[in-house]
Amino acid sequence: VCGAFASRDVRVVAADMDEEGLGRIADDLRGKGSDLVTTTLDVTRRDDVEELVGREAERAGGLDIVVNLAGVLRNQVVVKIDDDAFGTVMNTHLIGTLNTMRAALPGMRELGYGRIVNMSSLAVRGTVAGGAYAAAKGAIEGLTRAAAIESAKYGVTVNCVAPGLVDAGMFRTVPAEYQKESEAQIPAGRAGTSSEVAECVAFLAGEGASYVTGQTLTICGGLSLGL
Ligand SMILES: NC(=O)c1ccc[n+]([C@@H]2O[C@H](COP(=O)([O-])OP(=O)(O)OC[C@H]3O[C@@H](n4cnc5c(N)ncnc54)[C@H](O)[C@@H]3O)[C@@H](O)[C@H]2O)c1
C-alpha cells in the first residue's frame, strides 16, 4: 500500500509496531522518489495515535488520507475463545481503526476533504475458528458506514476493502495444507497479491472516488461468488 501511494507521489507516513518491517518498507521505497516517513506506533494506544496524527498533519499542512491495515490473527473456535485473545483481536482491528479515525476526522472535516480506507476481510462472513476476527471485521464495516454518513457533507469518504485470500502476511502464517485447499476454491485459481489490494485502496483513497462512501469493496478473485 505504501508503494502504491509512493508511485502516486503521495507523502506517506507508515506506522506499525514492527520496526523491522518498517525498515523493509523504507528499503523498498528508497530511491523511488517518494517522501516516506516511518514510525513505530501501537494503534491501540489512543494518545500515541492522536500525537502522531497531530504532529504529521501539522508538518504536512494537513492529513487527507488514512488507511487502516493493522491486524492480528488468533484462531480459536467460539467455545474456546479466551478473553485475552479476543481482546487483542478487537483492540488491534477495531479500536485501532477507531483511534485513527477519531484522530483524523476533525482535521479532514476542517479541510473539507478526506479519504479513509479501512481493512475488512471476506472472512467477515464467518470461517471456522475465525470468530474473533470476523467480529472485529464486521464491527469495522459498521463503524465505517456510520462515519461515512457523518462525514459525507464535509467531502470526506470512508470505505472498506475486503480481500479474500492474499499471498501476504497473515495468510502465509496458516498451515500450508489449508493455504493449498483454500486457493483451490478461488475461481481465479490463485491467491491475490498485495499490490492488487493496494490498487483498490489507492482507488478508494483517490480524488476519483469522491462519490463512493460507506461501501465495502470485495477483492477476492471470485471467491465470494457461487452457491
Ligand atoms: N493476508 C490476507 O489474506 C488478508 C485477507 C483479508 C484481510 N487482511 C487484512 O489485511 C491487513 C494486513 O494483513 P497482512 O495479511 O498483510 O498481515 P501482516 O501481519 O503482514 O500485517 C499486519 C500488520 O499489523 C501490524 N500490527 C499488529 N498489531 C499492531 C498494533 N497494535 N499497532 C500497530 N501495528 C500493528 C503488524 O506489525 C503487521 O505489520 C490486516 O488488517 C488483515 O486483517 C489480510
Structure notes:
By secondary structure, the protein is an alpha/beta fold. It contains seven helices and six strands. The chain has helices at 2-6, 19-29, 46-60, 83-111, 131-151, 176-184, 194-204; strands spanning 12-16, 36-40, 65-68, 114-119, 156-163, 216-219. The chain has a four-stranded parallel beta sheet with strand order 3-4-5-6, sandwiched between helices. Strands 1-2 form a two-stranded parallel sheet. The mean pLDDT is 96. It binds nicotinamide-adenine-dinucleotide. Nicotinamide-adenine-dinucleotide is lined by residues 16-18, 21, 41-44, 69-72, 92, 96, 119, 121, 163, 165-166, 168-171.
Summarize the structure.
The protein has 227 residues and is an alpha/beta fold.
- Poorly predicted runs of 5 or more residues: none
Instruction: Please state roughly what percent of the residues sit in beta strands, choosing from under 5%, 5-15%, 15-25%, 25-35%, 35-45% or over 45%.
Output: 5-15%
Main sheet? 4 strands, parallel
- Report the count of strand segments: 6
Q: Could you tell me the mean pLDDT?
A: 96
Secondary structure class reads alpha/beta
Shape: globular
The spatial strand order of the largest sheet comes to 3-4-5-6
Helix content: 40-55%
- Any ligands, ions or cofactors bound here, and which? nicotinamide-adenine-dinucleotide
Radius of gyration: 17 Å
Count of alpha and pi helical runs:
7
The helix/strand series, from N terminus to C terminus, equals HEHEHEHEHEHHE
How widely separated are the two ends?
32 Å
